[in-house]
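Give me the fold.
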Amino acid sequence: MKINGKSVVTGQIKNFFSYYGWPTVCADENDVLYAVCSGHRMGHVCPFGKTLMYKSRNAGKTWSAPTIIEDSYLDDRDAGILYLGNGRMLATNFVHPFEVYKKNYKSWIVESSGKFGYEMLEMWSSLKESDRQGGSFYMISEDFGETWSERKRIPVSCPHGPIKLSDGDILYIGKEMYSGGEEEPDTINAYISKPENIKFVKTGSCPKPDGYEWEKFHEPHCVQLESERILAVYRSHIDDDGDYFTMYKTYSDDKGKTWSKPEATGICGSPPHLLKLKDGRIILSYARRAKPYGIYARIIEKDGSFGEDELLIDKADDSDIGYPASAELKNGEIVTVFYKREISERYTSIVSVNWSL
């Protein structure tokens, strides 16, 4: 492995709204990179998150100023992006409902944004009911991210969004997210859509690992292997140590209708992002929030078997890091984006690392 370069996607810190997190990246036919994230925030949990997009036309060396592609009344979080071809792309995010923030996250908001954040929380109470609801959403762009459709709901959420299958269909593996009864709470399910007129329909449900409740499993991602078998990996919290995350894996041979019994990977780190390289191998990237903190990757072979060697993409000084996602350029170089404290002790930035195997 060779590290070829590093940059800060989100630029300099010039104001109090300088916390950025939970990114995803993709590349188009011309090697233009598109990175999305939740940004213009005051902290890990605050009322101000927006979905931002940055573009790089020089392989990640420098990045554009941000474009706001979604800014709802509530806190827009966990941005995903999928490039579909010919300038068409799909972006995802989710929001917690007002009542969840009021009940579970008021202290977080006060800590991150003080009276300012608390007053915003109070203002949310005046919104009409439809604007106070949370959920998981997706939007479509037909012009390389210049303009976007109205957002649409989907009953499940994944930080990095769906994938494109070899036949063009779009597969979304996600955790139930404020589905209004469409899905059993906390479960992980598969939704699929034809590419022409994107409308997701349920195709299957992923199995729960033996001996645990669904509340232990979150934030899945998937990839299609050379054999057309689909590999899905879950973020897993099965240890009493809140900073110890691991991952479970499961496979489908029928485009997500049925899945194998989940197996532990034994890897310390999460959540997963899976990138299929041109040579058929898979890059699994993840963060470790237990010491030694950092952004890591492993190679998964063409047949879906996990490699033993761990690749260090970047070190970190604390546990508020993660959500790496990768894209491959035409020359075979890999660009991985993630969030960490890079240029500030207070705020996290989106960081981009170029590397090669």
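The CA atoms of residues 113 and 230 lie 42 Å apart.
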